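FIELD: query
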Amino acid sequence: MLKKLVILIGIVSIVTAFRFSIWLAWGVLGIVSGGFLIAYIAFHLKNLERAKDLSPEAQKVFKKFGYLYVFPNLDDDISEATDKFAWAGVILAVAGCFYEFWWGVVFGAMNLAIMKYISYHFNKSHYILEYKDVVAHDEILDYLEHKHQEEEEKREQQKAA
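FIELD: result
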């Protein structure tokens, strides 16, 4: 869903560049890119509780990429959406060249770098590279499943009481 929305916004910004104003097009693209950047920063600033039951290696992974475990459905959506949005900025930069808007190349390069950076950090496959990473990943998943089961049991006990 998010990917389709981003594609639509990218198309709107490109059409805006050719029909109306290149500045307006970059404004639309900049607002959405800024939204992705703010979301990325917010996910990283979220303080996740320390999981004392995890091994030190799993704790490092959970601390660094915990938002991918807390919001498991967002990783692929945001990663793919920011990839698409990065290319919308490249197309807009090329379109700006037709209007001799050379700042568009700078904006396009910045947009590409930021969106690819965000895409990289919302993709689990970029940090699960070695066996120790797979073990840490599995340990975190087991820990979260166990924690979820404990919370369900507490809710059931509260309903019974």
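FIELD: remark
Residues 131-160 form the longest helix (30 residues).
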